[in-house]
Amino acid sequence: MDWIFLADDWSTIETQGRVMAQSVDNLCWWLAALFGLIGGLRIYNKWQLHSHHRFHVDAEIALWLLGCIFFIIAHVVTWVLFPA
């Protein structure tokens, strides 16, 4: 596979960009799902242990949620830059 900067014409660059965008899109969805599952299990575990630091559990919920939202925003930005 040729590197993007060695491509002969614009259509080759565009095609390679779309293929890479599809890969980044799939990666974003998988990472968001993985972060959601791991975060959910960690928070569930802390709640079951009756953690006395309620603020820390709430902050952790927010951080895991924002991590998933970041990957979803990365997905949207990828498709805006390289539409299908």
Task: Describe the protein.
The protein has 84 residues and is an all-alpha fold. The protein is 80% helix and 0% strand. It has a domain at 29-84. The chain contains two helices and no strands. The chain is rod-shaped, with a radius of gyration of 19 Å. The model has no long low-confidence stretch (mean pLDDT 78).
Beta strand %: under 5%
Please count the helical segments.
2
Helices and strands, in order, run as HH
Please state the structural category: mainly alpha
Roughly how many Å apart are the termini?
Answer: 21 Å
Radius of gyration: 19 Å
Main sheet specs: none
Provide mean pLDDT, rounded: 78
What is the general shape? rod-shaped
Uncertain runs: none
Amount of helix: over 70%
Count all strands and give the number: 0
Note the main attributes of this structure.
84 residues, mainly alpha, 2 helices, 80% helix
Break the fold down into its secondary structure elements and pairings.
Blueprint: H1 10-48, H2 54-81
Brief summary of the model shown:
By secondary structure, this protein is mainly α.
